[in-house]
Design a protein that fits this description.
Layout: H1 2-7, H2 15-19, E1 26-30, H3 37-48, E2 52-57, E3 68-73, H4 78-88
Antiparallel strand pairs: 1-3, 2-3
Length: about 90
């Protein structure tokens, strides 16, 4: 969790409100105080719905990241998402 805090300095308590009106293919979530992360993932999957996959991530950062998962859209074409990201940060992929 300390490594994640160094890179991701702002805690987002309500992801849907931050993403409202935006397209998103993937996000990461750390639930540091979860004592049963498997149950936490199940709860997150129910909340996210069938258009999203919630998977535990163990090696997002060096040294591992406990109680961290990715929430990924099942509908967004990953190649299109990557191209849009590269376009946004002005990286030529051609």
């Amino acid at each position: 969790a300390d490594e994640a805090r160094k890179l991701f300095k702002h805690i987002v308590p309500d992801i849907p409100s931050v993403l409202e009106g935006r397209k998103c293919a993937k996000s990461y979530a750390t639930v540091a105080d979860s004592e049963d992360f498997e149950s936490t993932i199940e709860e997150m999957q129910k909340a996210a719905g069938s258009d999203w996959s919630v998977r535990q991530i163990k090696k997002l950062l060096p040294g591992g990241t406990t109680n961290t998962c990715e929430v990924q859209s099942n509908r967004v074409n990953k190649a299109d998402g990557l191209k849009a990201l590269c376009d946004a940060i002005q990286i030529d992929v051609a």
